[in-house]
C-alpha cells in the first residue's frame, strides 16, 4: 500500500530557507515522492496544480506568513497541508488549523516523524478519498439538507456545493455516516487523525467543528445540524 502512495505522491515544499528545502527534497525523493519546491509564497501559488497531493508549508516566511498562504491555497485546493513550525504553543497550532491546515510538525523533527506524517496524510487523501480512483462507483450519504459523494468527496447543502478541507471532510463524513450517534472528541481525533489523543487535542477538534459549522450551518452560533452535547461530544441531528 505505501509503495503505491509514494509512487503517486506529489509534494510541494514551501520554505524560504534553501538548506531546509534541500534537506526535505533529499528525504522525500529518497522515499520516491515527486517534489516541487517554492522559495516564496507567490511561487507556491503559481505552482499549485491539480496533481499536487500535499503541501509542506513553513509558518515563518517573509512577505506572507504560512497561515496567510494556507488560506489562499484553500481558495483553490483542498489538498492536505502540513505546517512546519518552531512554535509549539497551543495558540500557534490553533491558528494553523483555523487557516485550513491538516497537521503540523515541530522543528527540529526526526526524519521518521516527517515521513510518517506525510504518508499518513497522503494515505487518507489518495486512498481513502479516492484521489486517484480509476473506477469510481456511486456512493452517497444523505441526511437532511446535506449530501456527500463519498467517492469524489463532494458535499452539498440543498444542492449548493460546500467546499471543505481534507480534514473537515473526514470529520463530517464520520459524523454523517452515523447520524444521531454521539462522538466524543477523543473518538473523532483518533479516527480522523489516526493518532493517540492528547490533552490539547480537544482544542484541535473544537477548531475543526467550528470551521465545519461556518460552512454547513445557517447560523453557526446556533447550530441545528452539527450539535454539541455539552461535556460529552458532537453529533449530526
* Assembly of the depicted chains: single chain
- How confident is the prediction overall: mean pLDDT? 85
Percent helix among the residues? 40-55%
Series of H and E elements? HEHEHEHEHEHEEEEHHHEE
Could you tell me how far the N terminus lies from the C terminus, measured between alpha carbons in angstroms?
Answer: 36 Å
Arrangement of strands in the largest sheet: 2-1-3-4-5
Spans of at least 5 consecutive residues whose pLDDT stays below 50 are 1-6, 130-138
Beta-strand residue fraction: 15-25%
Class from secondary-structure proportions: alpha/beta
Largest sheet: number of strands, sense, barrel closure = 5 strands, parallel
Tally of alpha and pi helices? 9
Number of strands: 11
What shape does the CA trace take? globular
Q: What does this protein structure show overall?
A:
This protein is an alpha/beta fold. The protein has nine helices and eleven strands. It has helices spanning 2-8, 18-30, 41-47, 66-74, 90-99, 111-128, 166-177, 185-192, 201-216; strands spanning 10-14, 34-38, 54-58, 81-85, 103-106, 140-143, 146-149, 154-157, 160-162, 226-229, 233-236. The strands form three sheets. It has a five-stranded parallel sheet, sandwiched between helices. A hairpin with a 4-residue loop joins strand 7 (146-149) and strand 8. Helix 1 (2-8) crosses helix 6, helix 5 runs parallel beside helix 9 (201-216) and helix 8 (185-192) crosses helix 9. The protein is globular.
